[in-house]
Each structure stands twice: as structure tokens, then as C-alpha cells.
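Recall that a protein's primary structure is simply its ordered list of amino acids. Everything else, from secondary elements to tertiary packing, is in principle encoded there. The following example makes that idea concrete.
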Amino acid sequence: MEKSLMLKETFMNEFGLEEQDLRTYSPLTLAYIGDAIFELVVRTVLVERKNTQPEKLHKAATKIVKAETQALMIEALKEDLTDEELAVYKRGRNAKAVTRAKNATMSEYRRATGFEALMGYLYLKGDMERMVKLIHLGVERAEVTL
């Protein structure tokens, strides 16, 4: 089994889940799972880089997973997105969310939602390799300390 599919495939197999057509997911549903998987990637990198106190890890993670930083990252990535990825991002960005981030502008929040939708899409598609590559590239280009 290809490494990039192992996490999702493990869940699918263990819980008896069936593949769904990704085109049927709402962009906010994609953003919901994308938020979680992005935070998991960030937390994993932080923990593996430095085994330290949880409150220090939490502070470092929240600086990265906040809407403002995600908005910076997606702006830095746009030129590298495929047409399909750009379409998913735009669907997420343009979705009408009921909530809003506490410490972000509406523009940042919408771009962050698009970023999360893209991360969720890539995760559910089983393309963890592409997802992680984009996160790494976004961190570098937006000069985010991870």
C-alpha cells in the first residue's frame, strides 16, 4: 500500500467505511476535516522537532494554525496549485460560513477556509504526499516558523 494512503485507508478499513465522491462534499465539510488534518501535521512536526512541555507546543501550534497564517500560506501557494486544487480552494474561500475567526479579518478567514478545504480535499482524496508538500512549501514561502 502506498504510504500516502495508509492513514485514510486504515480508518476506512477499520470502521467499514465506503469511498464517497469528493465532489459531493460541501466546501465547509472539506474545511472541517482539513482543519483537523492540518493541525495534526503541524503538531506532529512540532513534537518530533522538540519534546517539550505541552503548553509550549500548544502556543507554537496556535501561531501556525490560525487563520492569518493559513491565509498567508495559501497566497504563497496559489501559483503552484493545479486547476483542480485551485477550484477546491475557491469553493472553500467562497463558502458562506456561519462563524468567523476571533482574531482574523473576514478576508483572512475566507482564505483560511479555502486553505483548509484544500487540505481536507487532498486528505480525503488520499494524496497525503501532495498535502504535506504544499504545507511545507507554504511554511517556507510565508516564512512561518515551524
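The mean pLDDT is 92. Residues 27-49 form the longest helix (23 residues).
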